[in-house]
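Sequence, please.
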């Protein structure tokens, strides 16, 4: 397929974007935010996950109206996958431990996870440092929740 200035009545600039088995033509005459929203809509992305476009020469391109016309592959952020041990105390006789596999994509999602579980941060098993920032977590590591003293 030839990519260029004019396609079946559309006079604007168009790029071809592929994600998996799906291919869409995306007009790039708008702002970077408009292009981003067009891509999200075209591929029905209902997530806050970061994504980027890579051209046929494996160059990652910024989204703007001056980006080169051509074929692109859509890549979605894989997030950071961790394991979290959650200690529940149903009564004073014993403690129940469950492990949850968690993949986090955004700082807001990490904050929401902490809040929902009553945590102020996460501590790596057998570690001393408390992590309250998504960028500090290590993929594949095992953590437990840290609560405020007195809770």
């Amino acid at each position: 397929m030839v990519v260029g200035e004019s396609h079946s009545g559309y006079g604007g600039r168009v790029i071809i974007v592929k994600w998996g088995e799906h291919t869409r033509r995306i007009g790039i005459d708008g702002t970077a935010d408009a292009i981003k929203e067009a891509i999200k809509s075209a591929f029905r992305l209902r997530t806050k996950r970061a994504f980027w476009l890579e051209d046929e020469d494996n160059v990652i391109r910024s989204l703007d109206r001056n980006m080169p016309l051509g074929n692109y592959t859509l890549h979605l952020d894989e997030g950071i996958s961790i394991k979290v041990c959650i200690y529940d105390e149903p009564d004073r006789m014993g403690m129940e431990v469950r492990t949850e596999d968690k993949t986090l994509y955004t700082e807001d999602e990490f904050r929401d996870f902490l809040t929902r579980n009553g945590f102020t941060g996460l501590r790596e098993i057998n570690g001393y440092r408390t992590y309250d920032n998504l960028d500090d977590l290590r993929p594949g590591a095992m953590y437990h929740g840290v609560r405020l003293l007195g809770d």
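The longest helix spans residues 32-42.
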